[in-house]
UniProtKB/TrEMBL annotation:
SUPFAM superfamilies: TPR-like. Pfam families: SusD-like_2 (PF12771). The keyword Signal applies. It comes from Chryseolinea soli. This is SusD/RagB family nutrient-binding outer membrane lipoprotein.
Length: 508
């Protein structure tokens, strides 16, 4: 009897097991969690995430280190007490996984989705440029190969080889965009307009060729781009700007819009930028900063900046205190960062900048002045760059702010702007105007300043970096344990892992 009972139980268990096995896949598959994703969903996330990170990096360090803004409290960043800064590294490598997924999907589709592939190569190139310009030698050729090839301990490529790869990928992107039939969806930057992606690819090529121009002879490559505009289109106006337009509603507003007012107000107009714009009677000053609350209360509105690099007590008491130091302009402000009697900041006034027409014009002006190219006129490029940046701010500044952005009649003929003087003086004017135009464009103003040393910037009086403005980020400390051999090889090749070791292209 016992044996019969055991056999019966065993048979019942087998039936149940069979039934479970039959339905196992259906029961354990969540219909709300897709296992396959399309490129459009990946692309929108990459664009939004990286450009939001651009804004935040500009706010926290980029504007500070090139003296667009300064801090009145919690001043470590302004005194160069940086330690490790992993934001660029984490943004690039975190989002690069999805760029790699887009590339894999595009290449493995029959026929190949060249449009998605081209867009992904542009994003890949730009993102890797951010990381290498911040740190120097970085994982590149083996990056994102953990899943596909089980490469977990990546080598650090030299910056020279990384730039060769970046330029090759941008050239390829220009060549393949528009050669397949798929519509590029999920494109928050250009709405699927492939012609604008081609313009961005070639404009970035000119940016990066200029970046390495002290190390490499780039004349032929720059001129080849300009000699064939039909094949190699570049930005032609502000309408081509690679700039993310935000929305008025959450969660797609200007990234700083939800900041705490106290955190936002730690950052103020730098005296360096304020003095330059004031001396030039530049209307952009009223976009970048607001009159001090003290001067407004007295009926004599005045914009006043604060020197960079003061220690906490000096910074908080400068000029009599925060009420006498200008806050950052309403265009960039948070929801509760408005002034008494003034309209509340608009949630989507500002943009997430990747590259602008104004920047390209300054690149061409410098290239022509140095005879790296033979196309065009340096003065024309220069004045077009200034005008383009003026027009950009005129277009995005809400009318209700009541900011007069009329360019003074003598602006372009005054000594500080007129394209006159020695070549060194002309290059200084190009560099200064480019520096102004690169406000809030991630770390781009810092990268360009390191290459040119223009404009002349003086470290803050209480800096903690031996009177030196930093020229790179140190590697993430986690790399010492996660990829010690790769990091050590890069440090041996590049130099000490500190803020003052120049990267390969920083030849000055």
């Amino acid at each position: 009897m016992k044996n019969i009972r055991k056999i019966t139980l065993l048979f019942a268990a087998m039936l149940v097991a069979g039934a479970c096995d039959k339905d196992f896949e259906d029961i354990n598959t969540n219909p709300n969690v897709p296992t396959v994703v399309t490129p459009d969903l990946l692309l929108s996330g990459v664009i939004k995430n990286t450009l939001n990170d651009q804004v935040n990096e500009a706010w926290s360090i980029g504007n500070i280190v090139v003296q667009h803004t300064a801090k009145i409290q919690f001043v470590n960043e302004d005194r160069y007490l940086w330690g490790e800064r992993t934001s660029v590294w984490n943004s690039v490598y975190g989002n690069m996984r999805n760029v790699k997924n887009i590339i894999d999907i595009a290449e493995n589709t029959v026929p190949v989705q060249n449009n998605y592939l081209g867009v992904a190569l542009v994003m890949k190139s730009w993102m890797f440029s951010l990381a290498t310009d911040a740190h120097g030698d970085i994982p590149y050729s083996q990056a994102t190969q953990a899943k596909s090839d089980a490469v977990y301990l990546t080598t650090y490529d030299t910056q020279e080889s990384i730039y060769a790869g970046i330029l090759a990928d941008l050239k390829k992107a220009n060549e393949i965009l528009g050669t397949s039939n798929e519509t590029v969806a999920g494109d928050l930057l250009f709405g699927g307009a492939l012609g604008k992606w081609k313009k961005l690819a070639n404009s970035l090529r000119l940016r990066y060729l200029m970046r390495i121009s002290d190390r490499k002879d780039v004349k032929a490559e720059m001129q080849a781009i300009l000699d064939d505009p039909a094949t190699n289109p570049i930005f032609e106006s502000n309408s081509d700007n690679a700039a993310l337009v935000y929305l008025a509603s959450s969660p797609n507003q200007w990234p700083l819009y939800t900041s705490r007012v106290g955190s936002f107000d730690e950052f103020r107009l730098s005296k360096t930028l304020g003095d330059v714009l004031t001396n030039l009677n530049d209307p952009r000053l009223k976009v970048f900063a607001r009159p001090t609350e003290k001067s407004v209360a007295a009926g004599t509105p005045k914009i006043e900046g604060i020197p960079n690099g003061l220690e906490d007590t000096q910074a908080l008491s400068y000029n009599g205190g925060p009420l006498a130091v200008s806050r950052v302009g309403l265009v960039f402000a948070c929801l509760v960062c408005n002034d008494a009697g003034k309209p509340a900041p608009v949630a989507n006034a500002s943009r997430g900048l990747l590259m602008t027409y104004a920047e390209l014009q300054f690149i061409l002006a410098e290239a022509r002045e140095k005879n790296l190219i033979s196309t065009g006129n340096a003065e024309t490029f220069y004045t077009q760059g200034i005008q383009a940046n003026m027009d950009y701010y005129k277009a995005i500044t809400p009318a209700e702010y009541g900011i007069d952005l009329t360019v003074p009649a003598d602006y372009f003929t005054q000594d500080g702007v007129a394209y006159t003087g020695s070549q060194a003086e002309k290059l200084a004017k190009i560099g200064t105007q480019k520096w102004i135009a690169l406000l809030f464009n991630g770390l781009e103003a810092w990268y360009d300043w390191r290459r040119t040393n223009l404009p002349v910037l003086v470290p803050g009086a209480s800096n903690l970096n031996n009177n030196k403005i930093p020229v790179r980020y140190i590697y993430p400390l986690a790399e010492q344990s996660l990829n010690a051999a790769g990091r050590e090889a890069a440090v041996t090749r590049q130099g000490p892992d500190n803020l003052n070791t120049k990267v390969w292209w920083d030849f000055n």
